[in-house]
Amino acid sequence: MSDHCCSKPEPEPAAHSCCGDEQSGKKRPDFLLWGSLAGCVFLYGLYLTGAASGWLMHMAHGVFELLNTMWWGVALGIVFVGLLNFVPQSLVVAMLGRGGSLSGILRATAAGVFLDLCSHGILMVGMKLYQKGASLGQVMAFLIASPWNSLSLTLIMIALIGLPWTLAFIVLSMVIAVIAGLVFDAAVKRRKLAVNPDALDDEVAPEPLIPQLKALWGQVSVKPGALKAVAREGVKGSRMVIRWLLFGVLLAAIIRALVPTEAFADWFGPTFVGLLLTAVAATIIEVCSEGSTPIAADLMNRARAPGNSFLFLMAGVATDYTEIMVIKDTMKSWKTALFLPLIVLPQVLLVAWILNFFAP
């Protein structure tokens, strides 16, 4: 116990490992990870040295700004993933409740709102919850409710657009998360989507929460060996997310170099066409919640389009290429990954269209 945070990490199923190539016995180079990392390091260095100009400097500045903004959220995500690796599956089920139930979806939504991480830190934790037995609907509700609803970003949103609109956005995003979670679980029950192979048997009654928490707390260790184990498992479990995150940073930096952010307020007004263009822009540009928040606030304050502001925040969550690819890799299903925008985006568009009627 002296070498681990909480007894021993539970073995991960091979089919859902974040490092499948390593566990298969043949270590193949992760070209996406190392290529994206090399590109980010190169452009970050270019910005620090000032050895670039024109569009290349704009791209380097984009990488510099995005990495500086999101690093802490990713670091916290790695820590949470490492800690979750030592949490028994029965405790996760006891905290989130049974999948396929309204109470379970509500618990997952609340957990997403109150966990203070950026979108990609949340993504790491969400995939780990899936591997610990959370239902597909719970994971999706957790992801949809989370990215910009953290405490720190909520305070920023209040400062940028005011308390009433911030509260409205939070409540509406939670409603969409709950509806989407119920739809996903219903699709699983009808065999339209695959069942989580790591889920506990429905016939097994969940163990009481409090005794499990007490037992886990009694096993906690802060010795160097335990901290190293948390770091090791966190990096291992987050590798799949990090590679897509770095790729997303490069892609977003290219878009930033070609499309000025200031143009959003002029191009994407409170019209139906503006909503569609906003959805497209959010799909391409959304990389981290911290980056999308000021842009969404600008759409509210300069374009006078609260619906577009809400859409920019939520459409990025539903259509973010990083999130879709990580879901596909974790759950081994393009169908499951593409169901996320299919279920969430129509709801977001409808709510955004209604919100624009209340433009200030």
How would you describe the overall organization of this protein?
By secondary structure, the chain is mainly α. The protein has one domain. 72% of the residues lie in helices and 0% in strands. It has 17 helices and no strands. α5 packs parallel to α7. The relative contact order is 0.14.
* Count of separate DSSP helical elements: 17
Helix content: over 70%
Question: If you compute it from the alpha carbons, what radius of gyration comes out, rounded to the nearest whole angstrom?
Answer: 21 Å
The biggest sheet amounts to: none
The share of residues in extended strands comes to under 5%
What is the tally of beta strands? 0
SSE order, as H and E?
HHHHHHHHHHHHHHHHH
Protein name: Permease
Keywords: Cell membrane, Membrane, Transmembrane, Transmembrane helix
Membrane topology: Multi-pass membrane protein
InterPro entries: DUF318, UPF0718
Show the helix and strand layout.
Blueprint: H1 20-23, H2 31-49, H3 54-84, H4 89-96, H5 102-114, H6 119-131, H7 136-145, H8 151-161, H9 163-189, H10 209-219, H11 224-258, H12 264-267, H13 272-285, H14 289-301, H15 306-319, H16 321-331, H17 334-355
Any descriptors?
single chain, 360 residues, mainly alpha, 17 helices, globular, disordered N terminus
